[in-house]
Amino acid sequence: MSRFIGRHVVVTGASSGIGREIANRLASEGARVSLLARRLDRLEEAAAELRSAGGQGAAFACDITDKASVDTAFDRAVTAFGPIHAIVAASGIGGPNRVPSDPAGPTDRFDAILQTNVYGTYNTLRAAEARLADGPDTRHFVVISSVLARFGVPGYTGYCTSKAALLGMVRAFALELAGQNVQVNAICPGWVDTEMAWEGLDGMAAAMGVTRQKAHDIAMRAVPLGRMGQPAHVAGMIAWLLSPDATGVTGQTLDMNGGAWM
Predict the structure, then answer these.
(1) What domains can you pick out in the chain, each with its CATH number?
(2) CB count in 10 Å sphere of residue 121
(3) Could you read off the pLDDT of 134-144 as tens digits, one per residue?
(4) Can you give the pLDDT at residue 174?
(5) In the structure, what pLDDT confidence band is assigned to residue 201 with cuts at 50, 70 and 90?
(6) Which of 19, 145, 146, 175 is 20 to 30 A from residue 94's alpha carbon, by CA?
(7) Contact (CB, 8 A) for 258 and 225
(8) Are the C-beta atoms of residues 166 and 117 closer than 8 Å to each other?
């Protein structure tokens, strides 16, 4: 398919995991993709992979918690590929609030998690808004939230808070931008087979004194379908949201978490 020829899509968090797969999928359908993340080396690797498959893409490093860094990266992206037709905000950090980092005791990561997941996402959406392609064709904002926006998990206060906040942000942006024919939506994945997910399972395993595989099996008991999702599944949902088939879908949160939230 070539549904996105002529469209410029910015994907944050595109150096790995879900973001990288989204960038690959959209490029495979003809989009010009700007890949954003902090680590330029991994970004360049992701962009090279995308181009080797025949896609158009370029890497622009930035720290989404730093508004000036975001604006610079978006300006470079627009110079390379023109005004923006869609932004997929997939950058984020996870993990528990408290991680034993020194003998003095645990360090609370609440501020760091919110700075990245909430403030960073807001920075990227505002940067995209300021550089949108002209209508009347539909433009799109999509935010990657999490099933942990739907329910609490002990020890993950910062992550749950940040991902729930994104759903309110999406609804407000949807109302703000509806008059410009911009559709704004969120996706709540559950367990997805990524480096971040396995880091979480390793933490579970260590806390419970079990193997990584045992922690995986325990986690999957809470998923009715009994399995992890794949980054490609999330990328497919993004491609649908950005397509004409999703016309009129805005201000919504789409759950794709194996039935963990119903």
Answers:
(1) 8-190+229-250 (3.40.50.720), 191-228 (no CATH)
(2) 27
(3) 999 999 999 99
(4) 98
(5) confident
(6) 175
(7) yes
(8) yes
For tokens 């099933």, name the residue: 147
Confidence of residue 58 (pLDDT cuts 50, 70, 90): very high
In sequence order, the 6+-apart residues with CB closer than 8 A to the CB of 44 are 59
Active-site positions read 159, 163
When the pLDDT of each residue in the chain is averaged and rounded to a whole number, the result is 93
- The pLDDT assigned to 199 comes to 82
The pTM is what? 0.93
Identify the burial level of 108 via C-beta atoms within 10 angstroms of its C-beta, where 0-12 means exposed, 13-18 middle and 19 or more buried.
Answer: middle
Q: How, if at all, do strands 182-189 and 252-256 pair?
A: parallel
Rounded Cα–Cα distance for residues 58 and 94 (Å): 26
Burial of 29 (0-12, 13-18, 19+ CB in 10 A): middle
Look at residues 73, 36, 63 and name the one whose alpha carbon lies nearest to residue 46.
36
How far is Cα 4 from Cα 62, in angstroms, rounded to an integer?
Answer: 25
Exposure string of 49-79, with b = 16+ CB inside 10 Å and e = fewer, is ebeeeebbbbbbbbbbbbbebbbebbebbbe
Distance CA 191, CA 176 (A): 31
Burial (0-12, 13-18, 19+ Cβ within 10 Å), 228: buried
Read off the amino acid at residue 39. Answer: R
| pLDDT confidence of residue 154 | 87
